Amino acid sequence: MTQLARFVFLITLPLAACASAPTAEEPWSSAETGRFHRGVTTSSAEAQRWFDQGLVLCFGFDQEVARLAFAKAAEADPECAMAHWGHAYAFGPHINNPSMDDESTRIAHASAQRALELSGGAAPVERALVEALTKRYVWPPPAERAELDRAYADAMRDVWHKFPEDDDVGALFAEALMDLRPWDLWSAEGEPRPETPEVIATLEAVLARTPDHPGAMHYYIHTMEASPTPEKAVPAADRLRARVPGASHLVHMPSHIDIRVGRYADAVAANARATVVDRRRVERHGAGGFYVIYRAHNYHFLMWAAMFDGQRAVALKAARDVVTQLPAEAVAAMPQFIEGFLGSPYHVMVRFGMWDELLREPEPAGELLATTVMWRYGRTLAFAALGRVEE
Fold first, then answer.
1. What are phi and psi of 103, to 5 degrees?
2. Distance (Å, rounded) from C-alpha 335 to C-alpha 368?
3. What is the pTM of this model?
4. What share of the chain is helix, strand, coil (3-state, %, to 5)?
5. By C-alpha distance, which of 79, 24, 106 is closest to 57?
6. Which DSSP category does 184 fall into?
7. Is the dihedral of CA 265, 269, 272, 274 positive or negative?
8. Between the CA of residue 94 and those of 64, 142, 219, 239, what are the distances in Å?
């Protein structure tokens, strides 16, 4: 397990433990899912609708709700191989959560095997996707899953070469390559890692044909944001802004490019919209699990974008919001990671020279060590700026 995978694994275990499982009663509206559609082999319109929701949410890294959608698809049509494929896929790794615990692996493996059993009557591309996914999971799981991730990526390359006109296949293949190097597609000197040129070529082929493909736009933004030329992803970022209005992470994602190219006001707007979508998602499905991090990230990104753009009131409100929306159980379960968000208001006050306001901030309660350090840091700067050095 890589250092990043181990880190995320340690984070998500306590977060999952302190959250109730999300639920789903009915599919999202087609407007919320951006009318995304991938036809699969099923006679059930309900199964098809749930499948479409699950896949577009996977493209937006909301795997927890995607699992519900795929389970609903399988409930509506138990013989739909792609419903079980989606369920297995949604339990797999991605760049923000590259690890898998034993329970996720067990479920993913069982669903993939069930999809394989049902794939005889499926379309050729569906059979190919199912067979490729079986390379990703084994039970019992090995101590390290790097070889499985590589085998899946290699299998998806074969599927892409066999079905080069299928945009979803291209996006899935590109993501499989990205999963081999989570957040490591470029060196510190801006040189591409070995897989990066193939990721770029695949995504650009998809986007040349279907410029508004949600998965391809999302992955292209992630691929190019740390490159020497992030501006190449500006068209994708602009198209993604309103592509899937119900998927908070996709609404947020354009800001990853906005912040790189100096479009700070656009980054503020994207994250402000994402926090509104978050509230709807929380009302439906709860605020626990890995989504805790995504929701905090949206407020945190809004805060920093507003700081870059000189929007003091917006930045301070976002900083307050990131603190108040974090579940206390999450902070207690993983203070070494989650607590980093709690000092956000002090950063804003320092950025805008709000010295008197900063000195009125109460000392953090409890054993919030990192937060207390940030509070004292802010107070020290405030005393110095106000000439009250003796204090």
1. -65, -45
2. 8
3. 0.93
4. 65, 0, 35
5. 24
6. -
7. negative
8. 12, 18, 11, 23
Maximal CA-CA distance, the chain = 80
Q: Which own/partner contact pairs does 130-136 have at CB distance under 8 Å and 24+ positions apart?
A: 130/81, 130/82, 130/85, 131/155, 132/156, 132/158, 132/159, 133/85, 133/88, 133/89, 136/88, 136/92, 136/108, 136/112
Run means of pLDDT, 10 residues per run, the chain, 391 residues: 42 47 76 98 98 98 97 98 99 95 97 99 98 98 95 99 99 99 98 99 99 99 99 99 98 99 99 98 87 94 99 99 91 84 98 98 92 97 96 88
Contacts of 352 (CB under 8 A, 6+ apart): 307, 312, 315, 316
CA gap 1, 18 in Å, rounded: 24
Q: Which residue has the tokens 């109460």?
A: 362
Other Cβ atoms within 10 Å of 168 Cβ, number? 19
Chain centroid to Cα 26, Å, comes to 23
| Total count of residues recorded for the chain | 391
13, 118, 203, 272 from 176: Cα distances, Å: 23, 23, 12, 30
Q: Rg for the chain (alpha carbons), in Å?
A: 22
CA atoms within 13 A on the CB side of 314: 19
Token pair for 199: 């990721």
Look-up of token digits 């299928």:
166
Cα gap 186→223, rounded to integer Å:
9
Find where tokens 């084994």 sit.
138
DSSP assignment letter at 97: B
Distance CA 376, CA 378 (A): 5
**Cross-strand pairs, 94:** 97
Sign of the four-CA dihedral 373, 379, 381, 387: negative
DSSP state of 80: -
Which tokens sit at 218?
Answer: 């999302």
Backbone angles phi, psi at 296, to 5 degrees: -60, -40
Q: In 3D, which of 72, 33, 50, 14 has the Cα closest to residue 290? A: 14
